[in-house]
Design a protein that fits this description.
The chain is of the alpha+beta class and 285 residues long. Helix content is 19%, strand content 28%. The protein is globular.
């Protein structure tokens, strides 16, 4: 299994989509988690621009205006979808591997940047965790630090206690990303930097896949890929690290969430179709 998670900061630019497509060709991922698509919907034309004509299934949460947006995509020749769920800040799919029949929960997170939404965010993540009793990976942009040392150049460096409580409650393993201290920067002189993006797995995941690891491919300040694989990468697979000051990296996560009605969609190979369930919006309304 190989997963790419990437905060693409928009899928509307053709040049960027070509770069994304080139990366997918290089790493041949089985599952893709994208944050900040900034797209109101993912149509077949958009999908072709970065995925090509490979067969796939996918689900997406639309952006709010030009902010946010989540996309999870998987190869349908490898996985059968069992359940999909949408929250306000996350999307999740439960997949069954067609060859081994193993079950995997995969969750993609894009956390809120405003303090007023933080409480709902942690409630949603707790609700998701309570659904899971099988291998689970949850990753993405949490928009929050776990430790004080993960923020530099900001007047506020106090970690969110609810973040610690959530990690502890579900006994999650914070997978390390080698050679990267921060994952976000404002790119100003005397820049502020934070580690906002990470990947967690539960104990059940590590029991099934004990060699799970992350590797990094630095494209530029805004486009950084985290690769997730079952076995340690070969020397040929490990991309060269940039010599510049990198303050960005995106992870992937896997939780169980069921899809909401309305604009959120799960597409099974063919043209987009509306999905039918509601998770977090009902809980937080």
């Amino acid at each position: 299994m190989k997963i790419i998670t990437w905060n693409v900061k928009g899928l509307g630019n053709l040049k960027k989509n070509i770069a994304i497509k080139d990366s997918f060709r290089k790493y041949t991922p089985d599952i893709i988690l994208l944050q900040e698509t900034k797209k109101a919907s993912i149509d077949r034309k958009c999908l072709l621009s970065f995925w090509g004509r490979q067969s796939c299934n996918y689900l997406d949460i639309p952006a709010s205006g030009t902010a946010g947006g989540i996309l999870i995509l998987w190869k349908n020749e490898l996985y059968e979808v069992i359940t999909v769920e949408f929250g306000i800040f996350s999307a999740m799919v439960k997949l069954k591997e067609k060859l081994s029949h193993n079950l995997w929960w995969i969750t993609c997170v894009y956390g809120p940047s405003t303090n007023s939404d933080k409480s709902d965010f942690w409630t949603e993540l707790n609700d998701i965790g309570n659904l899971i009793d099988e291998p689970w990976c949850i990753a993405g942009d949490f928009n929050e630090i776990l430790y004080s040392a993960e923020r530099r150049g900001s007047s506020t460096s106090i970690p969110e206690q609810k973040f610690h409580d959530w990690v502890s409650e579900f006994t999650l393993i914070d997978l390390p990303l080698p050679n990267l201290q921060f994952t976000w920067s404002n790119f100003r002189q005397n820049a502020s930097c934070s580690k906002l993006d990470r990947c967690f797995v539960n104990q059940e995941w590590m029991t099934k896949l004990p060699n799970t690891n992350l590797i990094l491919d630095c494209r530029d300040w805004y486009q950084i890929i985290a690769l997730y694989s079952l076995t340690p990468p070969s020397p040929e697979e490990v991309p060269p690290h940039s010599d510049s000051k990198i303050c960005g990296f995106i992870t992937k996560n896997s939780n169980g969430i069921y899809h909401s009605g309305g604009p959120k969609k799960c597409h099974q190979g063919g043209p987009p179709t509306e999905s039918t369930s509601n998770f977090a919006r009902q809980r937080h309304s």
